[in-house]
Amino acid sequence: MGPGQIISALHTLISIQQPVFLWGAPGVGKSQVVAQVAAERGLLLRDIRAVLLDPVDLRGLPRISEQGTAIWCPPSFLPPQGDTSSGILFLDELNTAPPLVQAACYQLILDRAIGEYHLPDGWTIVAAGNRERDKSVTHRMPTALANRMVHLDFDPVLDDWLDWARKAGIREEVRAFLRFRPRMLHNMDPALTEKAFPSPRSWEFVSRILEAGPDASVLVELFRGTVGKAAAAEFAGFLEVWRDLPDVDEVLTQPLQARVPTEPAAMYALCEALSLVADEDNIEALVDYTLRVQPEFGVLLMRDAVSHTPSLARSAAFARWAEKNADVLL
């Protein structure tokens, strides 16, 4: 399932307080999706890294009551008993935790209680972890625990990630590169020993590195340390194309004279850049330029422009472009 489907499924499961486990490779964005759903539903989020816990951490510490009996004090990272708020208790990296910690979580998921502690009614348990085939450090989940949860497989999908990336301010050259090389969004080979590999998370790191304006002499090494040698080499080469693109303002002021790149990588990059500035004032010029490029790139450009500014689809210029490209759109 892609991120969009995962988000839709989580909304459904949280509405009925059904525990769910998200399975996915490292770096695909499991934690970010859970945080997004919590924000969309106006829920509190308690993010607990199960791998960092000891078995006794979930139950808490005992104290002596006035009657001389032991009473367990639950840890502060759990929602207080009697809390009237609603939220998500997120047990991240659950299957990475030792078996005894998983056993403690088992009671919490199974009975919504552990010892004398009871999870408040408005809270839903969501867990996540890496798949065994990804060669991550994992422990087999007990069958009884697995049977109490809905299991969803999380796979990265480029269009979903690009939608998120635009809203999150990911650099446009990173987005353009991944349009050009979509397989590089997540390319992890568990058999390789290389520590860095391309993933949605590591491309976010690349964007932040570019924002920092590093010295050109170390830029490729920074990319290698973030997304691995192969992806770094391709991305560095793409940046050379990116820097040689026609000026966006020139395209919009002289759409019939501005240069049209011949390299596919350059066209992907230019389409990304133009879609970001498309509006009602320049749509006529944008269409004039689009009619000069290969139809598949014209479709890519206009689709992205409309996704940014939906009102463009109702313009006369868009209708003119759609009529000219009716055979491609069918």
Give a written overview of the molecule.
With 330 residues, the chain is of the alpha/beta class. The protein is 49% helix and 12% strand. The protein contains 16 helices and nine strands. It has helices at residues 3-15, 30-41, 55-59, 99-111, 143-146, 158-168, 172-180, 200-211, 216-227, 229-243, 248-253, 264-277, 283-290, 295-308, 316-324, 326-329, and strands at 20-24, 44-49, 61-64, 70-73, 87-92, 113-114, 117-118, 123-129, 150-154. It has a five-stranded parallel β-sheet with strand order 2-5-8-1-9, with helices on one face. Helix 12 (264-277) runs parallel beside helix 14 (295-308). The chain is elongated.
Tell me the major beta sheet: 5 strands, parallel
pLDDT averaged over residues: 85
Largest beta sheet: what is the strand line-up?
Answer: 2-5-8-1-9
The best one-word shape is: elongated
How far apart are the termini?
A: 27 Å
Radius of gyration: 25 Å
- How are helices and strands ordered from N to C? HEHEHEEEHEEEHEHHHHHHHHHHH
What is the percentage of strand-forming residues?
5-15%
- The residue ranges in which pLDDT falls below 50 over 5 or more consecutive positions are none
Number of strands: 9
How large is the count of helical segments?
16
- The helix content is 40-55%
Structural class: alpha/beta
